[in-house]
Design a protein that fits this description.
The chain is an alpha+beta fold. The protein contains one helix and eight strands; from the N terminus they run αββββββββ. It starts with a helix and ends with a strand.
Length: 145
C-alpha cells in the first residue's frame, strides 16, 4: 500500500510539473509587433533558465542612405553594430503566477531598458508591459505562430 501511495504521489507530481511547463511554454512563438508605425516580427524562445525575445524581421531594414539599420542607441557600445533584425528585446523573463516576469525589456528606439511583465489578455495577444518605478507602458504583440 505504501508503494502504491508513493507511486501515485510521483505520478501526480510529474503531471503537475508537465502542465506548469506547458503553461509557461505558451509564450513561445513568433509575434507581430508595431511601435511608432514600424512593423516587426519578434520570436520568443527558451534561453538559459527563462525566455528571450528577439527581432527576426523589420519592415524597413535600411536607412535613408541605403545602409543597413543597426542598434545605434544601445547603451553597450559593443552592440551598436547589431543589425536591426537581430536585436534582443526581452531578456531573462521567467513564468510565475500566470505571467512572465523578472526580466528586462530593451527599447531600441530610445536605448533604454525597463523591467517587464508579459501576459496574455486574449489567446493570441501578448501584453508586454515595460515598467520604470510607478510608470509603465503597454504594447500588444499579436501571435502569428
Amino acid at each position: 500500500m505504501k508503494k502504491i501511495l508513493i507511486l501515485l504521489v510521483l505520478v501526480l507530481g510529474f503531471g503537475f510539473a508537465a502542465r506548469a511547463q506547458h503553461e509557461a511554454d505558451k509564450i513561445l512563438g513568433v509575434y507581430k509587433a508595431e511601435k511608432e508605425g514600424r512593423n516587426s516580427k519578434v520570436k520568443i524562445f527558451k534561453y538559459a533558465d527563462g525566455y528571450r525575445a528577439q527581432v527576426i524581421w523589420l519592415e524597413n531594414m535600411k536607412n535613408p542612405d541605403g545602409t543597413l539599420r543597426t542598434d545605434q542607441k544601445n547603451p553597450d557600445p559593443s552592440k551598436r553594430n547589431t543589425p536591426s533584425d537581430k536585436i534582443v528585446l526581452v531578456e531573462k523573463v521567467v513564468f510565475k503566477n500566470g505571467k512572465w516576469t523578472d526580466g528586462k525589456i530593451y527599447d531600441p528606439t530610445s536605448g533604454k531598458v525597463y523591467a517587464v511583465d508579459m501576459y496574455f489578455d486574449a489567446p493570441d495577444v501578448l501584453t508586454v508591459k515595460g515598467k520604470l518605478g510607478p510608470f509603465f507602458k503597454r504594447v500588444y504583440w499579436k501571435k502569428l505562430k
